[in-house]
Amino acid sequence: MATLIFDTDVLEDGKPIVGLERAMILVAACGQREWRVTAGRVGRATLASNG
């Protein structure tokens, strides 16, 4: 089994949105004859509230 976790920016018009990031996770497991891969993401907004 292999696990990869990394952070990525959220882009809008090709530019990162300040304060908005996502953590991505990829998990791969080898069965008897094949690899199974799954992916997920976790988002966290740290933008200041306007209200």
Fill in the keyword field for this structure.
0% helix, 3-stranded antiparallel beta sheet, 75% strand, mainly beta, 3 strands
Question: How do the strands and helices of this protein lay out in sequence?
Answer:
Blueprint: E1 2-12, E2 15-30, E3 35-45
Antiparallel strand pairs: 1-2, 2-3
Give me a quick take on this structure.
The chain is mostly beta strands and 51 residues long. It has strands spanning 2-12, 15-30, 35-45.
Please give a structural write-up.
This protein has strands spanning 2-12, 15-30, 35-45. The chain is an all-beta fold and 51 residues long. The chain has one domain. Strands 1-2-3 form a 3-stranded antiparallel beta sheet, with no helix packed on it. Strand 1 and strand 2 (15-30) form a beta hairpin.
| Helix percent band | under 10%
Mean pLDDT: 82
CA-atom Rg in angstroms: 16 Å
Structural category is: mainly beta
**Major beta sheet summary:** 3 strands, antiparallel
Cα distance spanning the termini: 45 Å
Low-confidence stretches: none
Tell me the domain tally.
1
Q: How many helical elements?
A: 0
